[in-house]
Amino acid sequence: MIARTWHGVVPSEKADAYYAFLLRTGVPDYRATKGNQGVLVLRKIEGDVAHYLLLTLWDSLESIKSFAGEDVELARYYPEDQEFLLEKETYVTHYEVLGSVEAGQGELPLR
Prior knowledge:
The chain has 111 residues and is of the alpha+beta class. Helix content is 23%, strand content 32%. The chain has one domain: Alpha-Beta Plaits, CATH 3.30.70. A 4-stranded antiparallel sheet has the order 2-3-1-4. The chain is globular and about 45 Å long.
């Protein structure tokens, strides 16, 4: 499994509106892409800005390509993002998922 992370920053006063925007656009688009295994939307408000971290889980690089395009390292944006984001970061980050455990469900496996 592959985890893909994207980071964005919006003014704090737009934080709730941006979350609603994500729920209408990015989150459903992730979920509609074959091979998507889930999405987490994380937010941290720091003074006058709100940081968003989206973590999506994928079954393969090919599945990510069907969402993001051939260059999976490039972030994907919607035209309306410019109404919220203070800047558009160019790249996302990918991680190999080695294991996961839900609360109370055991231990992570050794590799």
